[in-house]
Amino acid sequence: MCSYLKIEDYAKKQHLLEEGEMCTGKYFINSGVVRIYTLSEKGVEQVIHFAIEGWWITDYFTFNTNMPAKCSIQAVEPTQVVMIGEAEQEQLLKELPQMERYFRLVLEKAYAASLMRTHYMFNFSAEERYRHFAGHYPEFVQRVPQYLLASYLGFTPEFLSMLRAKKD
Amino acid sequence: MCSYLKIEDYAKKQHLLEEGEMCTGKYFINSGVVRIYTLSEKGVEQVIHFAIEGWWITDYFTFNTNMPAKCSIQAVEPTQVVMIGEAEQEQLLKELPQMERYFRLVLEKAYAASLMRTHYMFNFSAEERYRHFAGHYPEFVQRVPQYLLASYLGFTPEFLSMLRAKKD
DNA sequence: CGGGCCTTTGACTGGTTTCAACTTCTGTGG
DNA sequence: CCACAGAAGTTGAAACCAGTCAAAGGCCCG
């Protein structure tokens, strides 16, 4: 089974995947943090989400479609991942069909998180989103630079700076 | 296999699931449209997404967690669904492990759609989101009431009304 | 020690919301 | 089949949340 998997280390700011490349597999985060982001027509980078230890990531936009990646994945801090190629995953699933279940459950969790994000995005103001996030994941706020957190929460670094000044 | 499944019909505005109930299974939309929505602290209904023919839906927030539903699912027009209970799904997956794969692929698609929604939400203004949506799914814009579409797109019915008046 | 990247600050702008009043549509019972 | 009530859509004015722009300050890493 280990032959299917490949351990990879990435330095801060190094890319696991860049938009336009072919996405050839999935990554399991062993340690570190990565951000998944897209580039808008206007050239603005938008953080779609972060992934930390224990999460699986890939370009789900184009996964299984044989199209070039629509997003980029970049290490926010030094990160170690376990990579499994597409073909290897197929092979693994053939030999260990129980893994289908595992990957399905991983996806259910990720999907629920994405829906929850949508919920927060719509139902709370920018300030409420920041307070909520900072209250629930204080250690994470320390861990990522402010301009990335601002992008993730859906506002500008300037606005986040103003929020922190107000009361923190 | 048919014994696992139950066909159900819902009238317009009837609920498949209401917040607070236990979510006991998944629904496959045979015909019609449903909306999945949450209620904010302020009492505002927010459409998380729509689902049409061919999609599977459930309360992914609490699915498999034995907690009361965090969202409601309501028929937007007369809708027929195939319902599969949680226990029945487990049984089905045990007998037909290939179905694990099927459900995983369904989830990958749904997850990708959710991420794409996040992308649009952040990178486009309210007006751009409307123009884009109306351009891509004109028949759908006819199909659902404007106040639900406005909620889905993340702005007020009044604003949508103004957009339509401007140029349509 | 220096340069570039990140964060801060403040003034101005504008897209979107809110509110309230009015009109149009829809469905239900008499 | 019509009448009416409630739901959905429209309009316009005023308010505001958050973005943009520009310039200065802090900090990390080579």
Quick overview:
Two copies of one chain form a homodimer. The first copy, chain A, is of the alpha+beta class and about 170 residues long.
Largest interface: A-B, 35 and 35 residues
What is the 3D form of chain A?
globular
Mean pLDDT rating of chain A: 94
**Major sheet attributes of chain A:** 4 strands, antiparallel
Question: Overview of this structure, please?
Answer:
2 copies of one chain form a homodimer. With 168 residues, chain A is α+β, with helices and mostly antiparallel strands. Helices cover 42% and strands 26% of the residues of chain A. Chain A is built from 6 helices and 8 strands. In chain A, strands 1-8-3-6 form a 4-stranded antiparallel β-sheet. In chain A, strands 2-7-4-5 form a 4-stranded antiparallel β-sheet. In chain A, a hairpin with a 5-residue loop joins strand 4 (33-39) and strand 5 (45-52). In chain A, helix 5 packs across helix 6 (157-166). The termini of chain A are far apart. The mean pLDDT of chain A is 94. Chain A binds chain B through residues 38, 40-42, 44, 46, 48-49, 60-61, 63-64, 93, 97, 100-101, 103-105, 107-108, 110-112, 114-119, 121-124, 154, and chain B through 38, 40-42, 44, 46, 48-49, 60-61, 63-64, 93, 97, 100-101, 103-105, 107-108, 110-112, 114-119, 121-124, 154. The structure holds a DNA duplex (30 and 30 nucleotides).
